[in-house]
Amino acid sequence: MKKLFVLILSAALLAGVCCLGAGCGTQDDGTQPGGETGQTPQDQKPDLAALKKKYGTFSIVTERGTDYVLSDDGKVCTISVGAEKGSYTLSGYFEGRIIIDNKDGLATYKGVKLHLDNACIVSTLGTAIEYLPDKKNVEIVAKRETENHIINTSEVGDAVVSHNNLEVDGKGTLHINAAAGHALNAEDTVRFYDATTVDIVAGHDGIHAAHFVTDNEEALAIDFEAFTGTVKILYAFSQGFDCTTSKSTGTIDISSGTFEITNCESAFKTDVTLTIAGTVRASKLTAEAVVHGDNSTGATISIAEGGTFTVDGTPYTKTSV
């Protein structure tokens, strides 16, 4: 049975959001994910007043899974994983944080899918959407012909964090803005598929993960659609993509889709491999287009047949870094 909650946002929601323990984007050592950061340029900062007027009343519908819980102040929405994959549809303007947790301490559970249906999620203090369990994934779906925003305006945390895997798909548009942190941050893999259009502005890395993939044989075998969308990293204070780990196992595999990476240090930072079979256009970089991880001795670069990688309009020809 669907559960519909409608939250009328008041002016009080313009105040700061309380930070709640582990749900505030902290790592095990108590620090915020992201490390040293910069600040996004003024012309890349979102107009929150205009977005609030445009998106209006917030609603969340439970399609399948456990009921969500809203904090007393209405600023933190907590969803718990369960025996079946949770599915929720969000729409309207919400100033607060979406936290996905394993409140019941389940040994086995499924992940959570968040359908964004003209939704604008804005956090003023901490990560906007955070998946805390260390198994399964959070899937963010931009519904067809919708325009959606995930924003963290604070100087701590990222826009979206997953403590395991993170998937982005759909046929709509998703704008992701992290004032001082990463736009997308996953401890394991970030995967894109379907035809989503994604714009990214980040005060640290655009996409930060151990691995990044669009579609691959494993994905296609379980009926994921090949990624045919466009990802635009409009600004990142550090790397466009940083896929590195302490054990130097990070990889990047762009099997399809179009990626435009501008106004970053490097387009890609990887430990082991960078494979491109899609289209990548990088420009206005302040460092080498591809660099290897700090703990890596070098990485190989492969441009597959049909794939293109240009930097300021010139084909990239290096095969290793």
Structure characterization notes:
It is a single chain. This protein is mostly beta strands and 321 residues long. It folds into two domains: 3-7 and 41-211; 239-321, no CATH class. It contains two helices and 29 strands. The chain has helices at 48-55, 217-221; strands spanning 3-7, 58-64, 69-70, 76-80, 86-95, 97-101, 112-123, 129-131, 137-142, 147-152, 160-162, 165-170, 173-178, 184-186, 189-192, 197-202, 207-209, 211-213, 230-236, 241-243, 251-254, 258-262, 268-270, 273-276, 279-283, 290-292, 300-303, 308-311, 314-315. The strands form two sheets. The protein has a 19-stranded mixed β-sheet that branches. Strands 3-4-6-8-11-14-17-20-23-26 form a ten-stranded mixed β-sheet, with no helix packed on it. A hairpin with a 5-residue loop joins strand 3 (69-70) and strand 4 (76-80). It starts with a strand and ends in a 6-residue tail after the last strand. The model is unreliable at 1-36 (pLDDT under 50).
Oligomer: single chain
What is the overall shape? globular
Question: How would you state the average pLDDT, rounded?
Answer: 88
What profile does the largest beta sheet have?
19 strands, mixed
Which residues sit in consecutive blocks of at least 5 with pLDDT less than 50? 1-36
- Please report the number of helical segments: 2
Rounded radius of gyration (Å): 19 Å
Quick structural summary:
This protein has helices at residues 48-55, 217-221; strands at residues 3-7, 58-64, 69-70, 76-80, 86-95, 97-101, 112-123, 129-131, 137-142, 147-152, 160-162, 165-170, 173-178, 184-186, 189-192, 197-202, 207-209, 211-213, 230-236, 241-243, 251-254, 258-262, 268-270, 273-276, 279-283, 290-292, 300-303, 308-311, 314-315. With 321 residues, it is mostly beta strands.
